[in-house]
C-alpha cells in the first residue's frame, strides 16, 4: 500500500484550492451577514415601536431558523438557481433571528427612566434612538451579530451542496472519499474563521459607540461589503456546465478519470446529489454525475451517457457483514443471500422511483416487493438476538435495509433495528468497523476504490472486470477488516454521466466521447 | 405663568385625570400631592407634553402648548425625575451638557455654567468625568437637578425628585434645594406623595385623589380650613407636626425678631441649643408651645 499522505502534505498540495475555498467561505458569510444587519436592525427597531408586530416578526424569523438548511437550499433552487445567490439568501435568513431578537431585547431593556429623561429634555425621536437607545443596546445587539456570524460560518459549509463553493467542498468531499485529511482541511479553517470573526466582533463590541462618529463606521463597513463580493466565486455560466458531487470530484473513477482518460474539459461546480438532478432538470446544469439506478432519472427524464472507455468500475450491491456476527448467528448468511438474483437494474430504478418521486415509504415498497416475489413471511417471535442494519442516506439503501429487515424477521428469531441515514460511505463503514452496526448494503466499486484505495496497477488490471472486482474486495476485506461480502444482489448501481434527454438528442450525444468532442468543437 | 384648564386623560377605560384646572404664578411652587395612582404624575407630564390630554388645555405664558413643537417646548422646561434618569453611558459632564448641546451652546459657555452649578450644588468638580453609577444617590440627584437647571429654564417640573433617597439624605437635600437661589426664582411644579415634603417645599398644595382635585391652597388653608372630609382625613396622622411647620413664630409671638421661621424650625433650633448648653436663649420650648396652643384656640 502507498504511504498515506500527512495532513500537512495535503494542505500544501491543495493550498490554492484551500485559499480559494476559504475566501469564498468568508465572502458568503460576510455578504449574507451584512445584508442581514442592514435589514434586521431596522426591523428590530420597528418592532419595539409597533409592539403588535413583534410577535409576528420574531415568530416568523424563528420559523426560518428551524428549517433544515439543506431543505431551505433545495426550496430556493427553482427561484434562484444554484451558486452563491441561493446560498447567500439562505444564510441571510438564518442570520435574521439572532440580530432582530437582540436588537429588540437590547432596546427593550434600556431603563425607561433614561428614555423618559431624554424625551423630557427635548430630544427628538431620532435623537433618542441614536444617542440613547442604540448606544445602550449596542452590547446586546453586537452579541446577536456575533451569534449570527458563528451560525453563518457553520451553515456556509452547506453552500458546497449547491455549487456556491466554500470549505464545505473539502468537508463533504472528505466524508464521501473517506479522506480524513480532506475533512480536516475544510473543518479546521472553518472553525478558525468562526473563532477569528467572533474575536474581531468582540473588539467592536467594546468600542465606545459614542466616542466615534457614525461616519467613521461607514467606511470600514463599506470596504468589507465591497471586498466580500470580490471574494465570491466568479459567476458561473456560459458553455455547458457540469455539476458533480464532492465525492465524484475526488475520485479516480469519477472526475479525475474523466479528465485523464476522456480528456473531458467541462466547466464544473460542486453540488449535492440531493439537488443535482433537480438542477439538471431546471437547466441550471447540463451534465451531472448520477447513479444509474436512481429513480430521479426516470422522474426528470434524464439519460445516461455510455461509458465507452470503461472508467466506471462495476458497482454491484451486496451486504457487507462483520464476520463476528456471521459466526454468532450462522443462520443470518443464508437469509441475506436469499435476495441474490431478485433485483436487476430496472427493478431497482422502479423501486427508487416509487420512493424518491411517488413518495411511497421504503417500508411499503419493501413489503410490496417481498410479497410479489414470495419472499415475505410473517415476522417470527424475536428474542434470540438483535441485528443492527445500517444504510446510507438515500432511497435505495433505505429500501434494501427494509427488505433485509423483512427477511430476517420472517426467517429467524432475531430482532432487527435499522440505523438508516448514515451520511456517507465513510460514516457507514466506520460504524461497521466500530461495531455500531452489523451490516449494510455496499457497492463493490465503492469498496474497491474508496475503502481499499488500490494502487495504479491493480486498478488498471481490474477496471471493468465485474467478477474480478468482487473477488478482489472479498479477499481484501476478509483479510484487512474481517468483514465479509455476501452474494451480490444483482443490480449495478454504477456512476454515470447524465444529461437531459432532449438536449442530448438535439446535440446527438450518446457517449462520453461524444460529449468530449462536442465540448472541443465549441 | 402656567395655567391648566379642565385636563382629562384616560388610559383605556381607566380615567387617570378627570377635569383638572389650576394656575401657577411666576416664581411660585405648586405641589401636586396624593397617593399612588391619583393622577398627579400624569398631570405633570401633560405640562411638557410627554402625555397629551384627551381634552383640556395647558397655557404657559398665555401660549397654548399645543401650538409649540414638543421638543422645542421641553428644552425650555427643566425636568427632574425620581430615578434621576441620568444617561449611564454619559459622564456627569456630558449628562449635564445634553440640553445646552441640543440648543447649540458653545463649549466654553457650557463649561462655565456647569462650574457655576457644581459650586452652588456642593458637587465635587472631580466627579465631572465619572459615570453616574459611580456616584451616591444624593450626588446623582444633585447632578439630575444640575442638568435640569443648565439652561436656566423659567419653569421646572419635578417628579418625586427625592423619592429614591433614604430618609436622612432626603431631608438634607430637600433643605439644600429649598435654600438654593436658583430655585427660589423658578416657577416650580413638583409631584410628591410625602406630606412633610409638600409642606416644606410648597407655596401652595394641590391635593389630588382619583384623578380629581380635592383642595388647592396654601398649607395653612389645607390644614386649618379643609374643604371636605378627605382633606382633613389625609393630614390627620401628622397633624401636629404639620401645624407646627405651617405657622410662623411671628404669627404666634408678634414682634419676634426672627422672621420667616416656622414654629417647628424654631423648636428644632431650641432643642439643638439645649444639647449644646453653650448659649443662654431667652425663649423656651414650653413658652413656644403655650403660645402656639393659644394661637390655635383663636
Automatic annotation (TrEMBL), chain A:
Annotated ranges, domain ABC transmembrane type-1: 22-201
InterPro entries listed in its UniProt record: ABC_Gly_betaine_transp_sub-bd, ABC_transp_perm/SBD, MetI-like, MetI-like_sf
Pfam families reported in the protein's UniProt record: BPD_transp_1 (PF00528), OpuAC (PF04069)
Recorded topology in the membrane: Multi-pass membrane protein
Transmembrane intervals: 23-48, 55-80, 86-104, 136-162, 182-202, 214-232
Gene3D superfamilies with a match to the protein in the record: MetI-like (1.10.3720.10), Osmoprotection protein (prox), domain 2 (3.40.190.120), Periplasmic binding protein-like II (3.40.190.10)
Cellular component annotations (GO), alphabetically ordered: ATP-binding cassette (ABC) transporter complex
Main location: membrane
Protein's UniProt keywords contain Transcription: no
PROSITE patterns from the UniProt entry: ABC_TM1
Subcellular location: Cell membrane
Keywords associated with the record: Membrane, Transmembrane, Transmembrane helix, Transport
Family named by the database record: Belongs to the binding-protein-dependent transport system permease family. In the N-terminal section; belongs to the binding-protein-dependent transport system permease family.
Name of the protein in its database record: Osmoprotectant transport system permease protein
From TrEMBL, chain B:
InterPro entries, per database record: AAA+_ATPase, ABC_transporter-like_ATP-bd, ABC_transporter-like_CS, P-loop_NTPase
PROSITE patterns, per the entry: ABC_TRANSPORTER_1, ABC_TRANSPORTER_2
Keywords attached to this entry: ATP-binding, Nucleotide-binding, Transport
Biological source species: Pedobacter cryoconitis
Domain ABC transporter intervals: 2-235
PANTHER family the record matches: OSMOPROTECTANT IMPORT ATP-BINDING PROTEIN OSMV
UniProt cross-references to Gene3D superfamilies, sorted A to Z: P-loop containing nucleotide triphosphate hydrolases (3.40.50.300)
UniProt similarity note: Belongs to the ABC transporter superfamily.
SUPFAM superfamilies: P-loop containing nucleoside triphosphate hydrolases
GO biological process assignments: quaternary ammonium group transport
Protein name per UniProt: Osmoprotectant transport system ATP-binding protein
One Gene Ontology term of the molecular function aspect: ATP binding
Taxonomy, superkingdom: Bacteria
Amino acid at each position: 500500500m502507498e504511504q498515506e499522505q500527512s495532513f500537512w502534505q495535503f494542505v500544501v498540495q491543495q493550498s490554492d484550492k484551500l485559499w480559494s475555498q476559504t475566501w469564498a467561505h468568508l465572502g458568503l458569510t460576510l455578504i449574507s451577514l451584512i445584508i442581514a444587519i442592514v435589514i434586521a436592525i431596522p426591523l428590530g427597531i420597528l418592532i419595539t415601536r409597533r409592539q403588535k408586530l413583534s410577535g409576528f416578526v420574531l415568530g416568523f424569523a424563528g420559523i426560518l431558523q428551524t428549517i433544515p438548511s439543506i431543505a431551505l437550499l433545495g426550496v430556493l433552487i427553482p427561484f434562484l438557481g444554484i451558486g452563491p445567490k441561493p446560498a447567500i439568501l439562505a444564510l441571510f435568513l438564518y442570520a435574521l433571528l439572532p440580530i432582530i431578537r437582540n436588537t429588540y431585547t437590547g432596546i427593550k431593556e434600556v431603563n425607561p427612566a433614561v428614555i423618559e429623561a431624554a424625551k423630557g429634555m427635548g430630544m427628538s425621536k431620532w435623537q433618542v434612538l441614536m444617542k440613547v437607545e442604540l448606544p445602550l443596546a449596542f452590547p446586546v445587539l453586537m452579541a446577536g451579530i456575533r451569534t449570527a456570524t458563528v451560525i453563518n460560518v457553520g451553515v456556509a459549509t452547506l453552500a458546497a451542496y449547491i455549487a456556491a463553493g466554500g470549505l464545505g467542498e473539502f468537508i463533504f468531499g472528505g466524508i464521501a472519499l473517506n479522506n480524513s485529511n480532506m475533512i480536516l482541511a475544510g473543518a479546521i479553517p472553518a472553525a478558525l474563521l468562526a473563532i477569528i470573526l467572533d474575536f474581531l466582533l468582540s473588539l467592536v463590541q467594546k468600542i465606545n459607540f459614542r466616542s466615534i462618529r457614525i461616519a467613521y463606521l461607514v467606511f470600514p463597513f463599506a470596504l468589507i461589503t465591497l471586498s466580500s463580493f470580490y471574494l465570491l466565486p466568479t459567476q458561473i455560466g456560459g458553455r455547458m456546465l457540469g455539476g458533480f458531487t464532492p465525492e465524484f470530484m475526488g475520485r479516480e473513477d469519477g472526475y479525475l478519470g474523466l479528465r485523464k482518460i476522456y480528456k473531458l474539459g467541462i466547466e464544473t461546480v460542486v453540488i449535492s446529489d440531493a439537488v443535482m438532478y433537480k438542477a439538471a432538470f431546471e437547466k441550471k446544469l447540463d451534465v451531472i454525475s448520477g447513479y444509474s439506478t436512481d429513480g430521479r432519472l426516470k422522474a426528470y427524464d434524464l439519460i445516461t451517457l455510455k461509458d465507452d472507455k470503461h472508467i466506471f468500475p462495476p458497482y454491484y450491491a451486496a451486504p457487507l457483514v462483520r464476520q463476528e456476527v456471521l459466526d454468532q448467528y450462522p443462520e443470518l448468511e443464508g437469509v441475506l443471500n436469499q435476495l441474490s438474483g431478485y433485483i436487476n437494474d430496472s427493478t431497482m430504478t422502479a423501486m427508487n422511483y416509487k420512493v424518491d418521486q411517488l413518495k411511497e415509504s421504503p417500508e411499503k415498497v419493501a413489503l410490496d416487493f417481498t410479497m410479489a416475489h414470495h419472499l415475505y413471511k410473517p415476522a417470527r417471535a424475536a428474542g434470540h438476538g438483535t441485528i443492527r442494519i445500517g444504510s446510507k442516506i438515500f432511497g435505495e439503501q433505505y429500501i434494501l435495509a427494509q427488505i433485509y429487515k423483512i427477511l430476517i424477521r420472517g426467517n429467524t428469531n432475531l430482532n432487527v433495528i435499522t440505523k438508516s441515514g448514515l451520511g456517507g460511505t465513510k460514516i457507514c463503514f466506520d460504524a461497521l468497523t466500530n461495531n455500531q452496526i452489523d451490516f449494510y448494503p455496499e457497492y463493490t466499486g465503492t469498496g474497491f476504490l474508496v475503502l481499499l484505495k488500490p494502487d495504479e496497477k491493480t486498478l488498471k488490471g481490474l477496471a471493468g472486470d465485474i467478477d474480478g472486482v468482487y473477488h478482489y474486495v472479498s479477499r481484501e476485506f476478509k483479510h484487512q477488516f474481517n468483514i465479509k461480502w455476501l452474494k451480490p444482489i444483482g443490480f449495478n448501481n454504477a456512476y454515470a454521466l447524465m444529461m437531459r434527454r432532449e438536449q442530448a438528442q438535439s446535440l446527438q450525444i450518446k457517449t462520453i466521447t461524444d460529449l468530449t468532442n462536442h465540448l472541443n468543437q465549441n | 405663568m402656567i395655567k391648566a384648564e379642565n385636563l382629562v386623560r384616560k388610559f383605556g377605560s381607566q380615567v387617570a385625570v378627570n377635569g383638572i384646572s389650576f394656575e401657577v404664578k411666576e416664581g411660585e411652587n405648586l405641589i401636586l400631592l396624593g397617593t399612588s395612582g391619583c393622577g398627579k404624575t400624569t398631570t405633570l407630564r401633560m405640562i411638557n407634553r410627554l402625555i397629551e390630554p384627551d381634552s383640556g388645555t395647558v397655557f404657559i405664558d398665555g401660549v397654548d402648548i399645543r401650538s409649540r413643537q414638543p421638543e422645542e417646548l421641553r428644552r425650555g422646561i427643566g425636568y427632574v425625575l425620581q430615578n434621576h434618569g441620568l444617561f449611564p453611558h454619559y459622564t456627569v459632564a456630558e449628562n449635564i451638557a445634553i440640553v445646552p448641546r441640543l440648543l447649540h451652546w458653545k463649549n466654553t459657555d457650557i463649561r462655565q455654567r456647569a462650574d457655576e452649578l457644581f459650586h452652588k450644588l456642593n458637587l465635587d468638580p472631580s466627579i465631572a468625568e465619572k459615570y453616574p453609577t459611580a456616584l451616591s444617590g444624593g450626588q446623582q440627584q444633585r447632578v439630575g437637578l444640575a442638568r435640569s437647571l443648565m439652561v436656566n429654564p423659567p419653569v421646572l417640573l419635578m417628579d418625586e425628585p427625592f423619592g429614591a433617597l433614604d430618609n436622612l439624605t432626603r431631608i438634607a437635600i430637600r433643605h439644600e434645594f429649598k435654600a438654593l437661589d436658583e430655585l427660589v426664582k423658578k416657577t416650580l411644579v413638583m409631584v410628591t406623595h410625602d406630606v412633610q415634603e409638600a409642606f416644606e417645599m410648597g407655596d401652595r398644595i394641590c391635593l389630588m385623589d382619583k384623578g380629581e382635585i380635592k383642595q388647592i391652597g396654601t398649607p395653612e388653608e389645607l390644614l386649618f380650613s379643609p374643604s371636605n372630609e378627605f382633606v382633613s382625613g389625609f393630614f390627620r396622622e401628622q397633624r401636629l407636626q404639620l401645624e407646627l411647620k405651617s405657622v410662623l413664630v411671628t404669627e404666634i409671638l408678634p414682634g419676634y425678631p426672627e422672621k420667616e421661621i416656622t414654629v417647628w424650625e424654631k423648636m428644632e433650633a431650641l432643642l439643638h441649643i439645649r444639647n449644646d448648653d453653650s448659649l443662654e436663649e431667652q425663649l423656651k420650648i414650653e413658652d413656644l408651645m403655650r403660645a402656639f396652643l393659644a394661637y390655635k384656640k383663636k
